[in-house]
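I am writing to request your help with a piece of structural work I have in hand. The matter concerns a single protein, recorded as an amino acid sequence and a row of backbone structure tokens. Could you please explain, in whatever detail you think fit, how the structure tokens follow from the sequence? Thank you for your consideration; the sequence and its tokens are set out here:
>
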Amino acid sequence: MDKKEMELYLEKAGVLIEALPYIQRFQGATIVVKYGGSAMADHELKKSVIRDVALLKLVGFRPIIVHGGGKEISSWVGRVGLETEFVNGLRVTDKQTMQVAEMVLNRVNKGLVSMMEKVGVNAVGISGKDGTVLRVQKKYADGKDIGYVGEVTEVNPDLLNTLLDNDYIPVICPIGSDDAYHSYNINADDAACAIATAMKAAKLVFLTDIAGVCRDLSDPSTLISEMTTGEAKELLASGMIGGGMLPKLTNCIDAIEAGVSRVHILDGRLEHSLLLEFFTDKGIGTAIIGEGEEKYYVNQ
């Protein structure tokens, strides 16, 4: 073996050693991964995410996937001749649109399960209606009725715990039911936050189409690797955060204050972003922690 080959092997060994304390720290921990955006649209990125989740499970984590499917829903809504309308980022969902959304989300769900099975881990695809995992009430947008859009009122963790305890990864599409058992579409971020809170998750991860939270949205070098909820609130109050990041960061704060240990915002377009964030000293996205929690990324 020449010197160059030896250096390559030593570098690989170094990566494993760097990962060791994080594997030990979160052994047996429940993590919730909200999966959506470009990472779902690109087949190679999708395989990368699935492999990452499989590895997390095999090293002792208890992963749960909550997925969206908005782009595919919009495509199918157009195919069947329906109009797509959004109010404050929420899809107006009449009865026909709800039927299309449920069909598409279940199709996406089973596709993810198949990919998990192909890489050698057990997975079960469910919607929030199964086992009454997600109970909802009708959600309004600034007082406007937007149809079958649900706001989570209760999470029943029994089915999820049963699946995790029996070595399965739950893959959940964000459809819930109300007290009359009508189906409602749920914002996937909201569903992931509610599930992470109910499961007392050690980590909640949002795979997004941005690098994380930046002080200057136009400058990736201003990425904030780690912040407390207090620092996140100050950032929101500053007016520097807008667009889709505003509700996402608010969701992160709510999840931490409800008991989730750490929330991560990652760029799902980057291959193996989950592993880089979880198992390296620096991380590659933004981690949000509670007040008084120890920051453990270096150079913070």
Observations:
- The mean pLDDT is 86.
- The first strand starts at residue 30 and ends at 35.
